[in-house]
C-alpha cells in the first residue's frame, strides 16, 4: 500500500484531483472581455479554420483591431486554433484545456526535480502547494494566462533534455532542447532569457563541457532565435527596449513589483485582479525584508545549493524584469507561474536538509503541509470567482485599480452592455480624464447616443472627425443624423462608412433602414 501512495501515478492522480477540486468550477466560466476577447472571441475568423493557421505566424496574437501591439505568440494562439477547429467555439473547451495544461506543467516540474535528484516526497508536497497557491490561481481560471503555462512546459522540457545532453553528450538531446526552446520562444517572448541561462546552468553546476560543445549549443540555439526575430519583425512593430533600460522609473517599478510579489507569495491575503502603479506599504517592505533575510540564512547556512540559489535568482529576475517594459505600470500575478517554480526549488532543498538534520520535525512538516494545503486551496477556490464573467471581473478590477483607465473603461462597457447608460457615461468620462484618447472619446459618444443626447454626441463626433476620419466616428454620425431625421446626411455618412468597411455587420443593419441608400 505504501508503494502505491508513493508512486508517480498516485502523485499524478493526486495533482489532477486537487486541481479539479479547487479550480474545476472554472470550466463553466465565461470568456472575459480582456485578452480572451482579442485573442479568441474577436479572432475566430483566424483560429476556426485550418487553412488560416499559417496566418497565425504572420501576425500578433490579437485581433485585427489591435495589430499595433508587439506580442508575437503564435504557438499560444495555435493551441486555441486547434481546440476551435476540433471542438468548435466553446468557453468550456478552452477552460478545460487550461486545467489539463496546468496539471501537465506540474508533472513536468516533478520529473525535472527527480532528474536533479531532489527529495521525491518533499517535491510532491511542495508542488501540491504550488498548484493551489492563490498567487497563481488566475493561471487556472483565466484562459489567456495559458501562455505562462505553455512556456513553463516547454522551457522545463528543454532543461530536462539539456541535462540528458550534459550527462551523455548525445546530439539527439541537444536537438530536442533546441526544439523545445524554439516552441517556448514562439509561445512567449520571455523565453529568450533562457538562451544565456542554458550556458549559465551548465557553468554553475560544473558540467564538463568543452569549448566545441559550447559552440555547438550556441549554434543550435542561435538559428531558431534568428528565425524567430525575422518572423517577428514582419509580424509586429518593434519595441523601444533602450527607452526602458535607460529609464530610472523602470528599476523603481521593478523593485516595487518584486516587493509586492514577495509579500503576496508569503501572505496571499488579497490577490488583485489587476493592479496599477504599485504603491508598496511599510507592511509590504517588512514582510519582503524578512523573506529576503530567510533566503540569506538559507544561503549562508548552505541549506540549499548555493549554485541553485544563484541560478534561480537570475532566472526569476530574467523572466520578470521585462514585464516592466510597458508604458503602463500594470501588474498581473499570473506572470509568476514559472518564476515561482524556481523559487520552490530552493525551499524543497532547504526543507530536505532541515529534516535530515532534525528528524524530529517530520511530523510537524506533515502537519504544516496539510494546514497550508487546506488554507491555500480554500483561498484559491474563492479567489477564482473573480473570473466567472466579465461583469464580475471588471467590478473587481475597478475596485483594485480605480485610477487605471483600462479598469474604468472595462467596467463602463459592462454597464453599457447592461443598458445602464448613465453609469456607463460617468465611467467613460472618467476614463477619458485618466487617458485622453480617440477611442475613449468614441465610447463617450456611444453612451450619449444611447441616452438620446444627440446634440452633445454630434458635437463630439464632429470634433473627432476633424482629428481623424475614423470608420466608427463616421458610422456614429450617420446614426445620429438618422435619429434626428436628417436622412440626407445619414445616407452621406453611411456611404462614406460603407466605402471604408463594406462588410461591417452593424453598418449593414443600419443601411437597411435608410431609405434610398
Provide a descriptive summary of the structure in words.
The protein is mainly alpha-helical and 517 residues long. The chain folds into two domains: 2-387, no CATH class; 390-512, Tetratricopeptide repeat domain (Serine Threonine Protein Phosphatase 5, Tetratricopeptide repeat), CATH 1.25.40.10. It is built from 27 helices and two strands. The protein has helices at residues 2-5, 8-23, 35-39, 44-47, 53-56, 74-87, 91-115, 120-132, 137-141, 146-168, 171-185, 194-204, 211-235, 241-245, 248-266, 282-300, 306-320, 337-357, 362-383, 390-400, 405-417, 421-434, 438-450, 454-467, 471-484, 487-500, 505-512; strands at residues 275-276, 330-331. It has a two-stranded antiparallel sheet. Helix 8 (120-132) runs antiparallel to helix 18 (337-357), helix 21 runs antiparallel to helix 22 (421-434) and helix 22 packs antiparallel against helix 23. The protein is globular.
